[in-house]
Structures are given as structure tokens and as C-alpha cells.
Amino acid sequence: MSLRGGVLVVVVIPDEPFGRLGAVLSALIAAASLIGLTVHRDFYAGRRRKNFFCYYTNVSNLLVLVYFALLAPRLYASVRLRTLIPHAEFSLMMSIMLTFMVFHCLLSPAIYREMRGAPRDRDFAIVFTDNLIIHYLVPWLVMLYWLLCAPGKRMLGLADALLWTLVPLGYLGCIFLSAPIRGNIEETGSPYPYPFLNVRALGAKRVAGICVLLFGACAVAGLAVVALTQLSFAVFGGGHALLLI
Predict the structure, then answer these.
(1) What is the pLDDT of residue 46?
(2) pTM
(3) Cα-flanking dihedrals φ and ψ of residue 222, to 5°?
(4) CA spacing 20 to 30 A to 167: which of 2, 7, 160, 184?
């Protein structure tokens, strides 16, 4: 910690073998999420998108930015709070990887079909680059950080595998509760940000089925990651499982 020119600079190096790498990756993640969010919000064009945080992509990227820029330094600096780090970083990693999976598997084919016919101008380059940042670069940087730098993976258990799903569940709850009073979202022409959540077009029963399937997939993914982590420790041990230290 130092004071330079009246600005308090706090540098926290995690007490881990890959602590310095963690500090570098944390800075890259915070910078990438900040750039992605400001560009996605049309900050560069001097205008603001309405209903910006109706999109899970933006919510999850904001969570990443807040954690790595504000919360992580406090958690690592506090002996009392440090026990929360493994659980918080697992939930964050799973939440932002959901952004990648949904976009890559469900949304990107239609989006990139539309972009093929768009003129290759400055706006196209900005939109294309921004999509890469918030849907691909940030999630995979967070995954890399979690694999190489996140401490305490041995502490992860069944509760972690399921509790992280509160993030997408909370998001869905907010969307469905606010839709009747919010009005249409400009980009979609409906109160719903994603086609597979559009109750008007698909009907409540079909959307409910989709949400149940998505929740099931999230729960299975969480259980699988925790199980593989524990299996790796059991087989290799903490000293040899390089990515799980």
C-alpha cells in the first residue's frame, strides 16, 4: 500500500504460488470487462442504451468487474474474509462461463448471420470486437484465472455446485417480474431480452420448460466441475495437481 500524488494505491498479492500471475490476470480481467461494458453501452458514441442491465451478459460482466476491481483486494487483504474467496471465485467463474455458453450455443449463430450482410464499417468493427470481449475474452480470462490462481479449490463442495445458480435464478426472477411494467426493449421489440425467454411469442409453459432445462444444465455443470476438482485432488494431490493449487 502506498500514497502517490494524493491517490491511495493498494496492491494485494495472493498468498499463492501463482499470486503474481493472479494479480496480472485480475488487472486484465477488470480492464477487459470495463472496456466491454462501456463499448456495449454505446459510451463511445455519446449515448446510453436503455434496459442495459436486462441482459445477463451485462450483469455477469458487471459482477466480474466489481469483484476484481473492488471486492477481491478487500478479501485477499483480510484474514477473516479470506475463507470466502474459494466460494466467491467459483460462483463468479461459473456465472460468467454461462454467458459464454448461452451466447456461443444459442445466440451467436443468428447474430453472426445478421452481421454477414452488414457493411464492414467502423460500427461493425466495434460491435464485432465488443462481442468477442464480453462473450469470449472475459469469460475465458476468468476461467484461466480460476484454474491457475484461485486458492482453496479443495474447499469446494456440493453447496458451491448449486449455490452459484442463484445468480442466473435471481436474474430470471428480475426479468419476469419487471417485464409486465417495463415495456418493450428496443433491441427485441418485446419486454424480454432473449428469444428463448419471450413469453409472448413462445407461451409461458414453453418458456418455463426452457428455464427448467437451463437450470438443470447449470446444476449439472456445477456438480461436474466440483466433482472433477475433488477427483483431481484425490488422484494427484494438492502438490502435483498444478492447475488446482
Answers:
(1) 53
(2) 0.85
(3) -60, -45
(4) 184
